[in-house]
Queue: 2 jobs
Job 1
Amino acid sequence: MNESVAASPERGVPGAQQGLLPSGRHRARLRRWRAFKDSAARYGIGTAGVGVVIALGLIFVYLFSEVLPLLTPADVKPLQRYELPVESGAQPVYLSMERYEELGVVFSDQGEVSFFETGSGKVRERIPLPIPEGVEVTAFSHAETGQNLAVYGLSDGRILVGRHTYGLTYPDDRRYIDPGIEYPLGKAPLELDPQGRSLKAVAIQEGNNGFAVAAITADQRLVFSLITTSTNLFTGETTTERDTYTLSAPPDRMRDVLVTEDHRAVYVIGDSGSLHYYDVTHPQQSLLRESRQVVPEGEEITATAFLVGTRSLITGGSDGSLDQWFLARGEDNVRRLVHARSFEDHEAAITTIAPEKSRKGFYAGDASGSLGIHYATSDRTLFLEPVADAPIKAIGVSPVYEALLVATEDGAVRFMGLRNPHPEYSLKALWGQVLYEGYEEPVYKWQSSSASNEFEPKFSLVPLTLGTLKAAFFAMLFAMPLGLMGAIYTAYFMHSSVRGFVKPTVEIMEAMPTVILGFLAGLWLAPFVENHLPAVFSILLLMPLAMILTGLGWSRLPDAIRRRVPAGLEMLVLVPVVILLGWVCVALSPVVELLFFGGNMRQWFTDIGINYDQRNALVVGMAMGFAVIPTIFSIAEDAVFNVPRHLTQGSLALGATAWQTVVGVVLPTASPGMFAAVMMGFGRAVGETMIVLMATGNTPVMDFSLFSGMRTLSANVAVEMPETAVGSTHYRILFLSALVLLVITFIVNTASEIIRQRLRQRYSNL
Amino acid sequence: MTIRKWFKSGAPWIWLNAGAIAVSVIMVVGLLTLILVRGFGHFWPAPILETQVTTPEGGSVRVVGELVRSETIPARVMRQSGMSVPADLEVATRHLIKQGNRDVTGRDFMWYPEWAMSQWRYPDAAMWIERREWGDFYGFPLRLLEDGRVIAEGKTQVWEALQPRIERANHIHEQIESIQRGEIGRVNYLMERVRLDQRRAQMAFEQGEIDAAERDRRLAELEERKQELSARYQELRQQLQELYDQVDRDVLVARVADGREWQVPLAQIVRAAQPNAMGVFQKLGLYGERLWNFFTGYPREANTEGGIFPAIFGTVAMVFVMSIIVTPFGVLAAIYLREYARQGTLLRMIRISVYNLAGVPSIVFGVFGLGFFVYFVGGAIDEAFFPAALPSPTFGTPGLLWASLTLALLTLPVVIVATEEGLARIPSTVRHGSLALGATKSETLWRVVVPLATPAMMTGLILAIARAAGEVAPLMLVGVVKLAPTLPVDGNFPYVHLERKIMHLGFHIYDVGFQSPNVEAAQPLVYATAMTLVVLIVVLNLTAINIRNRLREKYRGESD
């Protein structure tokens, strides 16, 4: 439309200004150029504006996209199928894979180890173990997955221990894996049963001071042996030393045996489906502590395995049931068997169980050819589907969980792609009580990492959420009265000359870096509060009293003095009172402590059973309250100040006192605004990071005590985010807590913003 | 008025409300005072006291040092912490004395009970030395040695001879610093570039971009360059060694509190003073010097001593880069939302959402920055442009650029809100006038509306800067470290190194206050750093408020 206006003189005055105006063609070009600039600006700005909005929206999308993979289920994809590289007639007893998933290894029940390429099944190396002539293999067992240690029990009561190793070389910058077998206890079989009877079952575990081996002999004796090796520095010769003990047999026939990595417990599986726990901390006096029936009468236990760390035992029954057991120390300091949980039943008898190398998950195969992927901590069954048409004999899991080997009874091996990145996640693991390894009772606990590989991460967000709410609650408790009441006074009563100074003073605190508040809270306030506890409480109690008394005293003063101070300056009268009272309380604090609390209030708290941390919710409440006051004050003050004057003046004209006007007219009108202020303040308190990081002990606790610390979601992210592995479950759970924070504050802020806008409309209508 | 009536009228509530705001104001003022007093106070030369303290075993030790603070606590608390307090005392006072000399006694801060102390004296000869290692030194000057020979003895002679020699040592020390930081830093940087170029040549050959001859030619060239650099390096080492030999010439012998003689090499001394003998103006001079050093010096002793220059520089650099990013985008987005976008429910929702992002916890932005900028974008940049440096990341690790970008995102809403507010304030008469004269919409915008709204944009930018300067939580994830070896801007091409990690005032406070092993020694510096940050932010905010107020007045006048 602008063009037509600009163009009109051209037509109106033909030729008259020929000398001054540029030619028509030139002007048309100029017009086009201007029109082009106009639309360029339109699209340029449009693009930039939409781009910025999208960029901000990206935050949501990105956080969400990082959290989403947590929900993806486990998946198994068949890749290859080939003949199992074992000698004819032999069956696989153990299957595994090295960390590059290039080579697989199979141990046969004839005492032969074959390394083969996982992609094609081509045998790389076949190693018959040095089993003496005329002796047969009667039992086999593999230690913890990470140890790569296997033991064969022989028909003459001896054992042969071997370790599969994968040497890495880089000829021509290409990775080449050189597999082999080492014999940590020597190449010759080692005598285990002094009576030389055939071994029916055997178990081995390497610990800090050597090897522990347990075995069941053909005549149902339970043999337990501790083997230590020492290498002569000069000759390089390895000597072994062993102490063998015979444990008393359980009432029923023994079928299988297991020993833990700490060499303190032996589990025996009975033929009738029972589980027996032997305490072998002191092998000479070892005894059968407990026996439990695992499967119903008539069924039996068909497979067992330890989860990583050997603290949890998984039992699989002929009825397809899967159960987790571990030892927990009770109040009497005695370790007892705890049935942790049952997993989803398989349709057929469990034939094999393969634990993961660094997580608390396991893979179970059954007689119908179904594969189940289960996870202990999160109590999840991630996958349970048939993958073969014959009973599964052995499962080999890659240490990086990206491939699987499944051997079936018909002599085939399936090489499968595996996707199982986040089994630790389940709603229950995050928000419910979980029975963790070594605990008697289910608990809420956040403990995300530890130095040990065998540690069970505890990802309960409940203590963190509680900590967040606790910090925000105490902060609001401190900030709400001060902020709201201060706002009412400033907006409604205060003399405008003082208001001009007070309002910006309080508001500027909103820009105060919270790191400064946190540092003062942690290094100055926390020790101060600890040393002056009586002062803190007496100030809290006496301050309102002193204010009212001052007011009362003021009203008793002769009019001549009162008139000198104009109305709306009560605050100035109170300033010296507040300072004086504060000083007196602090100065008298040691005296009060002496008189009433035996000289040490902190000790007094401990004596009456209250745990007192130096950096506690009281300190955080004050510091974070301080940070929140400006937010609350500023918005609430605006709301009260903008209440139309004619409303309050009408009320006053009708004879209401100033306070009655506040209660009857101002507050009802401004209350949505004040509510919005509180919401904004709450939103800020929930997300605040530095103050809680510095002024609390950062321990995730589950109580609401004023005198204990807490860990909040935000501080947790700040502490753990830089240290976690990218893409891990922990990483994604931290993203989840950031997303939770974002959503909470976004909802709270949006609600309060909408309330404020409504209020603004209402005021303009009044 | 009876008391009952007084209560009924609601007056007590008014007084309570007044009390609430009184408490708030007192807290604000008290907090600022606390920071300013402690921050500025640290640099004032404190008197050095000397006293005898009776030990519980009946012996007596001499204590020389500065009083840090005193506290009065119930005697029982002390008894419970294992101290023997005279039986007749119920409330006990104790003093924290900074006795320095960490290398002599191992304990630079000690609490001493008042009842065990004799009269305090302030001897004129007591000397305070700020050292480069082991913290401050307190003692009495005895002799001055040059290459082991005594050249001055006696209090006054030593003192007179000492100052020029400290200046000389400091001068040499500056040379050493400049060689280490400047020249050697440069050589190291170039060496690293040569190493990367070598890898790049090798990679280019492997990918078939160049043939073996070309590769060998390049490698030979680089090898030559490397030889040159290492020759230069050797030369610099030689120079340094000479300077070290020179600086080690003088040694001050002093008597410490327990009567022992202690040698303080002048190479370690930053400055020495006898505060008890100084007049107010001398103290003022020393105060100014120390304050100046604090702002311009580099940190020492795990950040607990020395200056905060790299932190100030890092903060400023980050805020600067952030401003460059946030201003155009914030302003354009605001113009779009206010002038171009179709007003409606959707826009209202978008606007509320954008406004609300200002209230989203900053740590969330940090998480986003780490995941998206650092790992995702940075990782992609590394693969595309810096494959030679892999696996050590260039941009795929926290750094200045990512910190600035994250904060730009964090402060976008602030700029948008302020700019929109400014645009909304422009009277529509001005706009209509421009349009009526035949200007196009964009011409009206750029020639009339935006210039009028500039102060509002300035306000937004200043508020954004103030917010960014004080933000710490997200920075911990995306680019701030406790000690950055190099500044993000230096004399080596390309001069501005956006991938480098930076130091930051706020993080410095967190780190020194909470991660340092000697909290007591670090505290004054933390207060001083906090003071710097507070002053910076309060000044920025006051400026913004000022501009806004002026703006309001201006338009109130114009639109009427």
Job 2
Amino acid sequence: MKRILVCVKRVVDFNVRIRVKPDGSGVITDGIKLSLNPFDEIALEEALRIRERGEAEEVVAITIGPADCQQQLRTALAMGADRAVHVVHDGVVEPLTAARTILKVIEKEQPFLVLLGKQAIDDDNNQTGQMLASLWQRPQATFASKVEIAGTTARVTREIDAGLETLEIDLPAVVTADLRLNEPRYVKLPDIMKAKKKPLDSMSLADLGVSAVSRVKIVKTEPPAQRQKGIIVKDTQELVAALRKRGVL
Amino acid sequence: MAKILIVAEHDGTRLNASTAKCVSCARSVAGAQIDVAVFAADGAAVAAEAAKLAGVTRVLRIDRPENSHALAALLAPQVAHLAAAYTHVFGPSTTFGKDLMPRVAALLDAPQLSDIMAAESATRFRRPTYAGNAIVTAEVDPGTRIVATVRIASFEATPGGGAAPVETLASDVALPSHTRFVSIVAAKSDRPDLQSASRVVSGGRALGSADNFKIIYSLADRLGAAVGASRAAVDAGFAASDLQVGQTGKIIAPELYFAIGISGAIQHLTGIKDARTIVAINKDAEAPVFEVADIGLVGDLFTIVPELEKLLGA
Ligand SMILES: Cc1cc2nc3c(=O)[nH]c(=O)nc-3n(C[C@H](O)[C@H](O)[C@H](O)COP(=O)(O)OP(=O)(O)OC[C@H]3O[C@@H](n4cnc5c(N)ncnc54)[C@H](O)[C@@H]3O)c2cc1C
Ligand SMILES: Nc1ncnc2c1ncn2[C@@H]1O[C@H](COP(=O)(O)O)[C@@H](O)[C@H]1O
């Protein structure tokens, strides 16, 4: 079966203005809206489009996270994934652990393409896809804005600092999605009902033979330095005067 | 003692300014030995440039034809091979370093810290999370080799004046053939580079069209500034994708930043937090961009920008 594996992570919704706990032990997440990582929605959308073009037969979504992440996996199923895999784990999953876990699932599922978001917008690590490709010893095409499958290879356009780079990679491979790859579809109510009946497998890290090593200790979390309150000028002349006064013109 | 290996970023002929910023970060680790590795097809010129950076102990030059394009899958095994002798491996937090360094970290079985903004010691670093809204201090055990990307907006470039020796190393590390460079489309421009410019003028969705966006270019030219854009402006096709500023675009720290017709979403603001002076021009007095602006002007950009350009010309 020609299969695509898509990695999705639950994160604090991108619209939430996050606040740091006064004791510096982390950020406040109680009662805050949680959603699929926006880049992962884009990755999933791309997988669905590839399947809809007949270039893949099955799209499997995987997440590693606590039991109540099931809700976000159901969202992925409602978007159109055929099946979901939930690796249930409470607590921190460092990118290397996430990559090891996904690799175990790859060994079982044998996908020809693995899609991830380029970065999870909570920890902003931007590591997992590259680590996975490294451990798997397969090609990586990160920050993708265009993916074309051509038999046993793919052509991927990447958004890099210098412009748009195109790579040709042999499949199977890892691709990470950037913002302009596509615009994810909206989930419709009947799809949510249908998603409830789609298969969702749960397992633990131990079931996959992975142990969650944690080597980075977060000792403190602080709000960023606040900028000094600025001034409002009434017209362009005042603006130029204010710039001159600050010595930046 | 810390031994830090920095992977140089370059275009084959010139060293990217991000490398000098990585050196500054490495120099903040007391007593560190700092080696810069140049992987290229012919790295002579780049290595010579790197050798001049103050504080660099040695420059290692690894020439291979396969290194003519910076492909992570081909560079990673070479970096990992060298890294065995180091306690830290640093690369810039540009798309080059973001692509490469995690691939290296996995080969080394080392944890990575992304976007480090300060090195408090050899084992303790600060980095932003949640689009810069929560800064964490992260620590690893002494003896843990670490890979890091350096948030270049947080560091001044290390000055020149050094004269480090350049050592040429032969490399016979086996490289995969599964990844091939096809092409690059780079928007050629005579304007200053967005990432290193001291002045940046950015336009947002409010510009309304690629044609209207020309007033941003024109103001930028008057100021000798680089041009930037919000995601909305890039998505709408007003500006090229490599001009996007923000969480998923470029993180910049110019002396002077103009946000014109940009609302100031957190994902945009995280890209400009380190700008010395932020000017916001927006017709909505309630726009969040005014919360971070040093100088705000409420009004219609289509009258303000041409007026401003005229005033600056006088
Ligand atoms: C995961 C993720 C990552 C993202 N990364 C980035 C990123 O890296 N960079 C980024 O910029 N965005 C990013 N975004 C998008 C971000 O959330 C905003 O949608 C985007 O920044 C809005 O762009 P804008 O300010 O140009 O448009 P808008 O929010 O639509 O603002 C337009 C502004 O123009 C003003 N205006 C309209 N007409 C005029 C006029 N005639 N004169 C003056 N002012 C006028 C309006 O008052 C308004 O404030 C990201 C979003 C997500 C979900
Ligand atoms: N716990 C997780 N479960 C599933 N996918 C993940 C997880 N963590 C990271 N990923 C994937 O890896 C991408 C990059 O994450 P990161 O390296 O943490 O920025 C995300 O966009 C996801 O696609």
